[in-house]
Design a protein that fits this description.
Strands 2-1-3-4 form a four-stranded parallel beta sheet, with helices on both faces. A four-stranded parallel beta sheet has the order 6-5-7-8, sandwiched between helices. A four-stranded parallel beta sheet has the order 10-9-11-12, sandwiched between helices. It has 16 helices and twelve strands. Strand 7, helix 10 and strand 8 form a beta-alpha-beta unit. It is of the alpha/beta class. Helices cover 48% and strands 14% of the residues. It starts with a helix and ends with a helix. It binds 1,3-dihydroxyacetonephosphate (13P) and iron/sulfur cluster. 1,3-dihydroxyacetonephosphate binds next to loops.
């Protein structure tokens, strides 16, 4: 018994500098439960020549504790394309791991939980895209990265919430199919001359935010800065002070340093930014993505220990899907 307490004490001591970064959002008791896994993961990363790419929605012990790079979908894709690491662990949902594999096929890409999906990716199939093309001949297909590789393979180019308008306008077309998120598409349509045709997909987290949420919280907190992800419905975006990708929201907080802010996006983002910006208080409704939350320190450690679950994409799909993602990366 004393032996395991001793190990725990050692792990807590050895991770004290990391705990400093998250002490405003994780209690010492909670950290005692994380420290051993954090140490194991840091060791395994060295042994495997591995890196961890963590999306902004990861919990703080992952985001601040073990990640080598954090960011939005676009930043993770760019880093995956460039890394020399032998193993890439994607702490995010499945489409993010698939995108990493497309961009760096010679590396081993691991997902800690292959069941970490996405309601947008599940809303559309490759066959649906082929049918849309037939219905709108000549209109290029712009596909949000929150899709399967099979759907990307049917597309002309991909986009993320960080570059969608630029990608749509880069094509020089008067009409574009932008799928699968109807809200993201409507939000872009409101800000461009290009006619946008869309699909009936939505994010199960962001579609729940309402303009009433904003009014209610603004009434309670004078001077509240409201930031909404581009996947939120149009009425929400219209009343927000800033709209963009998760990385765009983080940058906005860093630049404007508001006293109080409400992020209309996945809950962990607020905690991750709060740990870095103690001068800002975060308020608002707590919405959690059940898919992102499947990724834990425990299954990241298991992934590195056992080198599972490897993500692969059949070459017939991969070559076409890669082209669509690489075209996006090439647009500056
Ligand atoms: P970002 O690319 O803005 O990080 O968005 C990804 C996502 O899944 C949002 O729900
Ligand atoms: Fe998909 Fe929404 Fe979860 Fe992002 S928050 S991974 S869009 S279900």
């Amino acid at each position: 018994m004393e032996g395991s307490f001793g190990l725990l004490r050692e792990a807590v001591q050895a991770t004290a500098a990391i705990y400093e970064r998250v002490k405003s959002v994780i209690t010492p008791e909670e950290w005692a439960g994380f420290a051993g896994d954090v140490l194991d993961i840091l060791r395994l990363k060295r042994e495997r020549n591995a890196i961890i790419l963590a999306h902004n929605y990861m919990t703080p012990e992952i985001f601040h504790g073990v990640a080598d790079l954090t960011g939005d979908s676009l930043a993770l894709a760019r880093e995956a394309a460039q890394t020399n690491a032998s193993v890439i662990v994607v702490a995010g949902v499945h489409f993010m791991a698939e995108t990493a594999k497309l961009l760096n096929p010679s590396r081993m890409v691991l997902t800690p939980d292959p069941a970490a999906g996405c309601s947008l990716a599940d809303s559309i199939t490759a066959e649906d895209v082929r049918a849309l093309r037939q219905k709108h001949p000549g209109a290029p297909v712009v596909t949000y990265v929150n899709t399967s590789a099979a759907v990307k393979a049917e597309s002309d180019i991909c986009c993320t919430s960080g570059n969608v308008r630029k990608i749509v306008e880069s094509l020089g077309a008067s009409e574009v199919i932008l799928l699968p998120d109807k809200y993201l598409a409507q939000n872009v349509a409101a800000r461009t001359e290009v006619k946008i045709i869309t699909w009936d997909g939505s994010c199960e987290v962001h579609e729940l935010f309402t303009p009433e949420d904003i009014r209610l919280w603004r009434a309670k907190h004078k001077g509240l800065a409201v930031l909404a992800h581009l996947e939120c419905p149009g009425g929400v975006v219209a009343e927000a002070d800033f709209t963009g990708s998760t990385a765009g929201m983080i940058d906005w907080i860093g630049t404007h340093k508001p006293e109080k802010a409400m992020l209309l996006t996945e809950h962990s983002m607020s905690e991750n930014i709060a740990a870095q910006h103690p001068g800002t208080t975060f308020v608002g409704p707590c919405r959690v993505c059940p898919h992102m939350k499947r990724i834990t320190l425990k299954n990241i450690r298991e992934a590195l220990e056992t080198l599972t679950h490897e993500v692969t994409v059949a070459e017939a799909i991969a070559s076409r899907a890669r082209q669509a993602v690489e075209r996006m990366i090439a647009v500056r």
